[in-house]
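Write out the bound-state structure for 2-acetamido-2-deoxy-beta-D-glucopyranose.
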Amino acid sequence: MKPLTNVLLSNILVRLLSFCVLVFLARFAYVVTVKGQSCDSIDFCFSSVFQDLMTEGVLSTNSSSLCIETLAAEEVIALRGIGVVKSIGISSKKLSSEGVRYGKSLNQPFKNLTFDFEFSSTSGLDQTLNPVQFALEVSRTLKPGGFFVVHTKSVNDEYSLRSLLELFDTFTLIKLREMDGLDSLPVREIILRKENVTLLKIKTANKCSVPSYKQELIRKAEPLIKQEPLKSWITLKRNIKNVKYLSTMVDISFKNRYVYIDVGARSYGSSIGSWFKKQYPKQEKPFEIYAVEADSAFYDEYKTKKGVKLLPYAAWIRNETLFFEISRDPSRKNEERGRGMGRIQAVQSSSNFMGDLNKIHGFDFAMWLKNTVVEKDYVVVKMDVEGTEFHLIPRLIESGAICLIDEIFLECHYNRWQKCCPGKRSPKYQKTYAQCLELFTSLRKHGVLVHQWW
Ligand SMILES: *[C@@H]1O[C@H](CO)[C@@H](O)[C@H](O)[C@H]1NC(C)=O
Ligand SMILES: *[C@@H]1O[C@H](CO)[C@@H](O)[C@H](O)[C@H]1NC(C)=O
Ligand SMILES: *[C@@H]1O[C@H](CO)[C@@H](O)[C@H](O)[C@H]1NC(C)=O
Ligand SMILES: *[C@@H]1O[C@H](CO)[C@@H](O)[C@H](O)[C@H]1NC(C)=O
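---
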């Protein structure tokens, strides 16, 4: 999904606002109605769960029902026990319980539009390696108007709820409540209804909303450094320890792909190897890695790095040829290993530029992003582009591509105090610290979780 919204989504957003209240109330209600009774046998628990669903009209005795990845046959037995006779379970483990057949959740052995009701316990959607395909199969075999009820332990924040709802984008969220699971860890029950029509998706030209949960995450993030640091090379580097990574605040299980894009990657070791691979909390997800680097001096090294896709271009605001300053003057060669200073200069402005100029290809990074990832993907970006951020960030915002980024680590280049010569500012960059702060603030205002990179 490109920056789109649809009828469903706005519906969902309204509901999201009441997430906390809803969960609280529902939990309370559940404790009163179900926990009040003894719930010591598994069958009894599922029975009361299904009984409640029946009372709410989600399930009826004539519903054709499917339990996905049922470990033993408890759910099926419980359903049949309360009179839902047309109930069946599938399991990808070879079990021979009555009412359960062998079948994969990612390739359900049923025709389209077979069921009125599908149920996934915490051994279903929570455990799958491919939530997108899981959701497609539920959507395929469920009849319009039918219900999908999922129990999950992975929805503990609004981000993960929204990720889950994005998987089921032709469904409406009916209800969400919390209950105690078998191991007394909280379980969320989410009730979704499949809509009859594929709801109209309206493109709201390049705009994306800033849902309240994003603002909440940004409030929880480390504060921006308001004062210009005297020794930025120390202050900013140390600040990385304060960073509140998104993946330490929310559950990222229900995403499609996991993507890391290093814009201005320089050498492999400078940030991909030393930081992203080692320090970024990944919740054990496999990340695809893109390295965007315009300086060919680094290319050989990437040939041997499997799992890193090199884009040998400069991230820019359109496709065009640029001139690239490669400051590889011998005196500086060893100073910042692999984190050299490359600055790109558009062709027009290069006439009075004195330096080692290389012609390189710039590409429209925002467009590339829109063609490469979707909102269902989890996307982390590091951007260190020697001043070009003042072109790239506005372009990302204006094109809506910014909404595709979950978290961004941004180095902002300004006329900082120099290490070499106290009291002197770097002549390399025109922008001031205040302008950088403005860039960060505006990103956070747009709902983007941005961190100050050094
Ligand atoms: C299922 O049963 C309910 C009453 O229990 C009835 O209202 C409904 O029409 C039935 N649905 C079908 C598809 O037979
Ligand atoms: C079943 O549904 C899928 C998509 O959900 C569709 O691609 C396929 O053509 C359908 N098959 C039949 C036989 O209608
Ligand atoms: C779905 O829509 C079609 C066409 O609008 C209609 O014929 C059908 O009865 C609807 N089905 C349900 C379950 O609402
Ligand atoms: C820019 O370049 C990319 C990659 O070569 C290409 O896919 C895209 O269509 C180009 N865009 C424009 C507007 O020319």
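---
DSSP finds 14 helices and 19 strands in the chain.
The pocket of 2-acetamido-2-deoxy-beta-D-glucopyranose (ligand 1) is lined by residues 60-62 (CB under 6 Å).
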